[in-house]
Amino acid sequence: MIILILNSGSSSVKYQLWDTGGDGMLAKGLVSRIGIDNPLLTHTARGKKYEFSPGGIIDHNTAVKLALDALVHPEHGVIESVEQIEAVGHRVVHGGEEFSGSALITDEVIAAIERCIPLAPLHNPPNLMGIKACLKLMPGVPQVAVFDTAFHQTMEPHAYMYALPYELYEKYKIRRYGFHGTSHYYVAHQAAEMVGKPIEELRIITAHLGNGASMTAVKFGKSVDTSMGFTPLEGLVMGTRTGDMDPAIVMFVMKELGLSPDEANNYFNKKCGLLGLSGRSNDLRDVLEGAENGDPRCQLALDVYSYRIKKYIGAYAAAMGGVDVLVFTAGVGENSPYIRQRSTEGLGFLGIKIDPAKNEQAVGIKMDISAPDATVRTLVIPTNEELVIATETERLVKQ
Ligand code: ADP
Q1: Structural domain boundaries of the chain?
Q2: Beta-carbon count within 10 A of 132 CB
Q3: Ligand 1 and 339: CB distance under 6 A
């Protein structure tokens, strides 16, 4: 099936075209600077890159149209006409408690995604704009929404409730939702395949360490706890986000720096994490380089980052009554032997022990990096959220 996958953000639309029956991904691209100026399309197909600047100021509708034009472009395209696209799969950030799985887009589904806007005011509106653009540009083509939160809907109240007055949950739906669900789902299933056991028999800890980062306890195939919470700010140290901290710091910093609620939200999401601690960069590669050159703040950032991951490994082993598999994925998880080593050192008591040579070798590839005497398998698995979206879209369309 030929499927268009869209990830629509506030100022950009990422797309991929997949042929699920044959070659997998056929083309991918990005339309950036939507609603700003100098919009730009970057399109890659058959290893060749093509760039196009339409000029002016464009909206999401035009951005999707540009992507479709590139896909049928006589020179850079991969299909002859838009009619060849049989379905569209959309990444949607927040499905709240409305969605515990993917959904075929209908008016009712759109209304439910709209009801989740208060939970993700920056993400769900552009996601909906992508859906509406496709409804307009490709009428009659089935569309599917795949939610970042859906995989975590199996968490039980003791894991998803905060110790706040219960009315806040009832009135505002304040609870842990978790994100990166498609990635945690994908790598957990891949891990079960790699160790050759049914996922229903495994206790898996998945660490998705990208610019945003989260960990999940996947017990017998179900998410039972995850480190991101009501928003993606909770949990691990991230590129620019604090992760866990004393909530009283928010009020203190707002008072001392004179920040409004919106400014504070921006501050804790954009100025903290690796960037705030190191004072240098949100990119782990820069922080690693700084530490190698003797910058103590970069070293401190790496120490805090790795220690937080280690604490979550311990917590999730406790939550599941043990752990059988630990998985590292996403930009940092797939590519940084240093972070994998630092965040697992001293965990021999849990059975987690990695082989230093294998760890060094595992850069951007699927690999078992466990030491021979480890009782827990530690795996590096490149994530593939688009594959999950393509598979889910095909499954729902064929139902
Ligand atoms: P996003 O959340 O934006 O999808 P990614 O999964 O691409 O992020 O991860 C981005 C992070 O991965 C950045 O912090 C980057 O420094 C890190 N990263 C990418 N390659 C490497 C590498 N070779 N070594 C260490 N970190 C890396």
Answers
A1: 2-147, 181-380
A2: 16
A3: no
Nearby residues of 367 by Cβ (< 8 Å), 6 or more positions away: 358, 361, 379, 380
336: Cβ below 6 Å to ligand 1?
yes
Comparing 2-147 with 181-380, is the CATH topology the same? yes
Identify which of 211, 237, 360, 386 to mutate to test ligand 1's pocket (most ligand atoms within 8 A of the CB): 211
Other residues' Cβ atoms within 10 Å of the Cβ of residue 33? 16
Centre of ligand 1 from the C-alpha of residue 368, in Å: 20
Q: SS3 of 327, please?
A: strand
- Is the C-beta atom of 335 inside 6 A of ligand 1? yes
Q: How far apart are CA 97 and CA 168, in angstroms?
A: 15
Q: Are 388 and 182 in contact (CB under 8 A)?
A: yes
Q: What architecture (CATH level 2) is domain 181-380? A: 2-Layer Sandwich (3.30)
Q: Which residue among 23, 59, 69, 148 is the active-site one?
A: 148
- What is the structure's pLDDT at 23? 85
pLDDT in tens, 17-28: 999 998 899 999
pLDDT above 70 covers a percentage of the chain that reads: 100
284 lines ligand 1 (CB under 6 A): yes
Contact present, 286 and 280 (Cβ < 8 Å): yes
Tell me how far the alpha carbon of residue 99 lies from the centroid of ligand 1, in angstroms.
29
Ligand 1 atom nearest 363 alpha carbon: 23
Please measure the distance between the N-terminal and C-terminal CA atoms of the chain and give it in whole angstroms: 14
Task: Return the closest-CA partner of residue 304 out of 267, 334, 275, 335.
Answer: 275
Substitution site in 278, 332, 361 for ligand 1 pocket (most atoms within 8 Å of beta carbon): 332
DSSP-derived 3-state class of residue 121: coil
Residue 321's contacts (CB-CB under 8 Å, 6 or more residues apart) are 203
Active site residue 148: yes
Mean pLDDT of the chain: 97
What's 2-147's CATH class? alpha beta
Atom of ligand 1 nearest to the CA of 288: 25
Band (237; pLDDT cuts 50, 70, 90): very high
Give 296's contacts (C-beta < 8 A, 6+ positions apart): none
pTM metric for this prediction: 0.95
Non-local (6+) Cβ contacts of 198 within 8 A are 192
